[in-house]
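hiii so my PI (J.) wants the whole complex modelled not just the main chain, which honestly fair. so below is everything: two entries, each one labled with what it is. i double checked the lines twice but i was tired so who knows lol
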Amino acid sequence: MTEPSDDTLVSRAAAGDRRAFAELLERHYDRIYRLGMRLLGDADAAADLAQDVCVGLPGKLVSFRGDSRFTTWLYRVVVNAARDAMRRAATRRRMENHYGEVEAMQRAPDAARQREAIWLRNSLARLSEDLRTTVVLVVGEGLGHAEAGRVLGVAESTVSWRMGEVRKRLRALAVDEETQS
Amino acid sequence: MSEELERLEAALGADVPEPPRETRERAIAAAMSAFDRQQETMTDGGHRSRWAGWAGATFGSLSRGLASPNSNTYLAFAGAAAFALVAVVVVYLLPLSQLLPMDAEFPEASDAAKAGEATQLDAPHVGEARSERTQRESIALPEVVAETPYAPAADAAAVSAPSAAAADAVRATARDMKSIASERGARGSSPREKLPGRAQEAMAYEEIALHAPPADTGVRVHPAAPAAMTLKQAREGPPQRGYRDQGRDQFADFETNPVKIVAEEPVSTFSIDVDTASYGFVRASLNNGLLPQKNAVRVEELINYFPYDYTLPEDRETPFAASVSVLPAPWNAASRLLHIGIRGYAADDPPTRRANLVFLVDTSGSMQAPNKLPLLVNSLKMLLEALAPDDRVAIVTYAGSASVLLEPTRVEEKGRIAAALERLSAGGFTAGGEGIRQAYLLAGQHHLEDGINRVILATDGDFNVGITDPEELTGFIERQRAGGVFLSVLGFGMGNYNDALMQRLAQNGNGNALYIDSLSEARKALVEEARSMLFPIAKDVKIQVEFNPAAVSEYRLIGYETRLLEREDFRNDRVDAGEIGAGHRVTAIYEFTPAGSGAERIAPLRYRRGQATEAGPGDELAFLKIRYKLPDAEESTLMTRPVTAADAVADVAAAPDDVRFASAVAAFGQILRGGRYTGGYGYDDVIALAQGARGEDRFGYRAEFIGLARLAESAAAMPPLQR
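here's the output for the full assembly
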């Protein structure tokens, strides 16, 4: 017997099928967590985000109408939740100063990976939110420009433009780093 | 592909560590209970389970607050406040008679009262005292709540919170709330006395925002909820289940109009825009201490928000009059402003045309916030006052599905309408057809041949109105417009506001989009200017300005970026444009560089074609053409007027108040959009210019603007971000 498709599960869950909903969660939790992790760069934040998204799903499923792939729709939900989380975190951070950064360094498993993680975080942090989200979807999640566009609600060409922009900015950052060191 | 992108790819592509098993399980379990709650809500539709859901979400946020490794005193405090919030709501839902035997409901609370002086302020140490392990476990809270949806706050929390310290805090909080609650129960009034300072602050805010709406229906969030809300929460409404929408307002991208060279492009064409939604949004944003996002600022809508005393048309045959002034640009001494002010005639009292209005109201969960649905209800009550007894009103609600809440009813039957509005605030929803079709259907049933037929959509941006494809939706609205039913859009709330779509819908429906963030704004939009919104006096109004290359070398249109038309569209009557309502004022401002001044922004070309254009009459700067159709006409009428040196003043100060004020608003909007052409002109200059041009300012709008400009000086841009 073949596995039921996401769409089938969604419509069953929306109709009140508890097992269909459980199956959906089992199938997609890791995806949600992974995208959260990439967008937020922090395991605790990603865990909270994933939980928030999951808890919100029953209410949101109704609004999924099958006009895009379920995963596209889900990406959109996660990206929006992550944006909210980032804004909240930014407000909180003003009070916390740099506690989070120090802590992250202490937790990083090995030096090289840690350096890379810090570089990544710094570079991403210097991009605007739009660019950051776009780059995570395209490079991190491997979405095509068209699909990333559907997730973000922008045109495919906008995604392509943003990727060009990211390239440009990263290059500029690299030049900065060299001149500084 | 650049090296950097490869590096980024490697870093991003590196395997994300698997989610810890217990994290995964917990999230799934929480989601399953949310699912069960949802099912319950769908089946009994009652308030019980809805509130239980909300309580669950609130508990969730508390436990997360405590559990975060970065937890600090502020969060713990907020968490305690969230508990208080739940407790009060639970109490408030009970009939008064059940309030007194409260001890039965809060068995822990009286113990805690004896046990010590633990108060809300003690809560912070809880967060520090607990190990991360126990903090994590406390996240299990939502499930407990879900299983016992109506359990009193103290019990539910005490059962699942393994740490004694947390249980103490909960008891202490519950005790505090209990004392407030029984105080309230006993006296039945003066809820303020026992509240902590922060809560009072919140209440005060609530009153300002809503003028303390009636508390007759027990389910309403206020006034009980704000008692424990932080100021921020009071502003944004009760937390929604799961995560809250925040900062996701959608605006269409647009670029500021560039400078044009008269020799190359002497003609500028655009549609008028009487919308003011952008001003409302900018104000709400600045009042929150944040600079609005660039695309939220449409300069023309900022300018058009204010009433100006432009000359009225001389007779009824022409629906509006245009006045023109030329003055030095306040932000650039070398350039000039061409200010065009249009004013429609004011319809007589009482209105001669009857109105057939259908309100299509979003009652989805996100509309429950106090600055949305309750504000809308009060706004609609005001609008009723502005209507004639003969006019008809109907209400269709939608929240995923649509239903007719009020069949078309004559305004004189105030009781029925008021009763329907009360049901609206309770937020019940039933199944039905598709919202927008339903609304148009009702409008069609009582179509007034010679009257005003209009659907008024009130929403915070959730366009789940039955047609999901925006193209199809705008197409549908366009067809309805052809059938004589127009559309207006009222926007509410922030965080989820879909401005881009609202604008598009209103434009396609021959209507206007308004953003309502306070009762005073509702009064302005729905009472003082209801006539303008409801009674169009001209439609498809287009403006075309041709500059005289002999007098003007460069120009740019300030604002109207989203309303530009092709030159040939001006004469094409099939091309749709904005409508003007009775008494509407519309302002358009160009900045131009006089020919020969040497202040051109664009350097002349080396291989320039010779003087390609014949110079026009020397004293004419430009030629203004306005095309419009009378509301029922198919063919357009043309109105023209030359702009000559006689319209110019030598000094900004010599221009009329209205013109100077509009210029100040124009400068403000441009600075908010990045100030590409305004040079060093700052908010201080805007304030100074506006101060001197306040005029009579009967309703205080201009004073409020000056306040906003001050706020803009200190407002933070959206925090850039982060980890």
